[in-house]
Amino acid sequence: MTAVLDPSPPTAHPGAQRVAQQVAQHRRRRARRVLVVGVVLAVAVVAVFVLTMSVGSSGVAPLDVLRSVVAPGSDPRTDFIVRELRLPRALTSLLVGLALGISGTVFQRLLANPLASPDVLGIASGASAAAVAGLVLGNLGGLALSGAALAGALATSALVYLLAWRQGISGYRFILVGIGIGALMGSVTSYLLSKAEVADARAAFAWLVGSSGMAGTAQIQVLAAAVVVLGPLSGLLGRRLTVLELGDDTARGLGLHVERDRRLLMLVSVVLVALATAAAGPIAFVALMAGPLAARLVAGAGSGIVASACVGALIVLVADLLGQHLLPVTLSTGVVTGLIGAPYLVWLLIATNRSGAGG
Amino acid sequence: MTAEHTLDVLDLHLGYDGPDIVRGLTTAIPPRKVTAIIGANASGKSTLLRGMARLLAPRGGQVLLDGVPVHGMRSVDVARVVGLLPQSPVAPDGITVGDLVARGRYPHQGWFRHWTPQDDLAVGSALAATGTADLVDRHLRDLSGGQRQRVWIAMALAQETDVLLLDEPTTFLDLNFQVEVLDLLTDLNRARGTTVVMVLHDLNLACRYADHVVAMKAGEIVVEGRPGDVIDAAVIADVFDLRCDVLVDPRSGTPMIVPLGRHHAGSRV
């Protein structure tokens, strides 16, 4: 190689400059797609967020909703309806959706399987079992309920991780162990319900269906703090996620601390799913659906975490809107997401079985 | 070209659950040469490569990169010097060639560092070197096996390391693609002085393309050196438990192994 007056580094291959331009174009096209999808989704999330607070027994114009949320004080009656009655519910839907969207896609990509969302892996069941134990045995509420759900989710995920560990983590074994542990946690929940006082059991049942409407202030606040801190963190960790999904060997070759980074990403996701569960109960299938839908929108570019968070938020907000106002009967958020999600899961099982990824 | 990097293996013991697979092995990888590790199945050749690539922690002994134990180094520092192509790498569904090869830049980027023209050039150079530039927008799943392997090599090249470890880079490829991949690695070695270490199954290709062969059996080295100096019928009989003639390749002058089975091996010499 004659590198005397060559401006490129000595490693450059002949023709590399021209190909580098192609690479830059490809990269910019991909980045533009991620940006456009992100902006469109974010606008849609804000629009539905406002819309859910605008409809109801007494309608409030979307602009008045916005004014009341951003700069209250001009109209006390509207402020009361929006801020006291509707904002907590809408905020819960928004935060729960963001949290579930992030945690779902992180697990799915870490384990390289669209089935591997925290609700399938038993982590949401672990959070639920611990929360039901708190409700039934200790009459817990507020921060203590969030704490119980978090402890349950952490213990369950640690158990799944340990049981699935064999010289590393394989997605397939992790999912099978997770489904097993999830079933165990479901049995624990049923046992607790069977032993509970009738009133406690009723409350626990209502909680288990999952609804944005029942979150307490403390649960909303702690979830908001988690989303504000862990959301951007997971975005930053997204690049490691894109390397981790190339498999442990390749990721280690590229300089990742595979175990440390995987545990960190899992920890972030488990905390998010636990606090979301504490706030609104186990809202079904959102974590399962958000990631693959988002990946389709961004055509697989980047880590897809932002898009997945937005899609998760959209699903929960729309489900709550449907369940509260648009369907002839009032349904809990979790029932609506279940109605959408169950057929999707069936389709996913069939599709992954056909391609050999689901087993 | 950057400084010459040395990769040394010192009394290395490696294993999974059971007994040691690599048993007290010591060798020095010749810098800026192509080294082929050969041996029968379960001889420990892939395990040795995995140990050198930090995929396995040593049970005893050390792997030294420029005299420093790699298992004590920061992972990302090693990744700037030593690249790896594992035996069966996995790609997420729907990933494009451009996206995949770009991920080879990971060790050169920080938490907040933006993509630079230098990164584009490294990726472009890797694509050009592997003849995959026209595939940049294509999905990996739509490519042939040979194209796919070239793309994976491109990802390892985009990492711009001076040492490249490859675990059976030609396995599952048709013969024409095997030759293509080995030619490509030779180009790379000659143009950039990259130290190439690979596990190979095909003895004749290993003898032709390697400057240095390491023949392993039962976790230990039987012989190592220039193929023409060290490969003979006795060595092949020992390493592979196979009777053979070793002729001189009429094209390259390197050893050419002609196996002698129980049939079809007697009439012409």
Automatic annotation (TrEMBL), chain A:
Pfam family, one: FecCD
Transmembrane spans: 34-56, 90-108, 120-137, 143-164, 171-193, 205-230, 264-291, 297-319, 326-350
Predominant subcellular localization, coarse grouping: membrane
Bilayer disposition of the protein: Multi-pass membrane protein
Record's keyword terms, sorted: Cell membrane, Membrane, Transmembrane, Transmembrane helix, Transport
Localization annotation: Cell membrane
Keyword Disulfide bond part of the UniProt annotation: no
Gene3D superfamilies in alphabetical order: ABC transporter involved in vitamin B12 uptake, BtuC
Homology family: Belongs to the binding-protein-dependent transport system permease family. FecCD subfamily.
PANTHER family linked to this entry: FERRIC ENTEROBACTIN TRANSPORT SYSTEM PERMEASE PROTEIN (PTHR30472), FERRIC ENTEROBACTIN TRANSPORT SYSTEM PERMEASE PROTEIN FEPG (PTHR30472:SF24)
Protein name: Iron chelate uptake ABC transporter family permease subunit
Native species: Cellulomonas edaphi
UniProtKB/TrEMBL annotation, chain B:
Keywords on record: ATP-binding, Cell membrane, Ion transport, Iron, Iron transport, Membrane, Nucleotide-binding, Transport
InterPro entries with a match to the protein in the record: AAA+_ATPase, ABC_transporter-like_ATP-bd, ABC_transporter-like_CS, P-loop_NTPase, Siderophore_ABC-ATPase
One term of GO molecular function: ATP binding
CDD domains: ABC_Iron-Siderophores_B12_Hemin
Record keyword Iron present: yes
Membrane topology field: Peripheral membrane protein
Presence of keyword Lipid metabolism: no
Subcellular location: Cell membrane
Domain ABC transporter: 7-243
UniProt-recorded name of the protein: ABC transporter ATP-binding protein
